[in-house]
Each structure stands twice: as C-alpha cells, then as structure tokens.
Design goal:
This protein has 97 residues and is mainly alpha-helical. It is built from 4 helices and no strands.
Length: 97
C-alpha cells in the first residue's frame, strides 16, 4: 500500500511521519481534524483516505481501521462538528437566561 507523496512510514509504528508532532493528540481527533480541513478547503469530493492519513500523520490503514469507509468518516466528522456547534449554542443560551 503506497503512502501519500512526501510521507514516510515509521519502522515500528507503521504510521506516516508527515504529520509528525501531532502524536500527542488522539488518532481519531487528528483524523477528523484532517477530514474537516480538507472538506472546508477543497470540498468533500477531495477527501481521500490517503490525503486524510497524510495530514493526520497516520497510515491509510489506520484511517480505514478507525472508520471503515469514507461515508462513515464523513458521518463522524459531521456529528463531531454538530456536537461542537450545539455546545457553543447551549453555552450562549445559558448566559442569556
């Protein structure tokens, strides 16, 4: 399985080192952040598992292991963003009793 251009694979982890320095954040969070970033910048059609993996600093297989397929990845991203939005709205409503 080929890694995204410009990425290398860690010998012991099997993860791409392109997103090195992000390993202190949970894998699922990094993957969803990468997915959201690509979607905002280039649209959903530009999202590929390889591109997400490269940005998140993980292997493409890790993305598949975590989400299974692109539709499930999209659903997880939308649900996370909706949860974040509703949290902000809830806070604002609470401050305006």
């Amino acid at each position: 399985m080929a890694e995204p251009t410009g990425a290398t694979t860690g010998a012991t982890t099997g993860e791409s080192t392109e997103g090195a320095g992000q390993t202190d954040r949970p894998v699922r969070e990094r993957v969803l952040d990468a997915t959201a970033s690509i979607t905002v910048t280039d649209g959903w059609g530009a999202v590929t598992m390889a591109k997400v993996a490269g940005i998140a600093g993980v292997s493409r297989q890790t993305v598949y292991n975590e989400y299974g397929a692109k539709p499930a990845l999209g659903q997880a991203m939308v649900l996370r963003e909706l949860d974040r939005f509703l949290t902000v709205v809830g806070r604002e409503l609470d401050t305006h009793d």
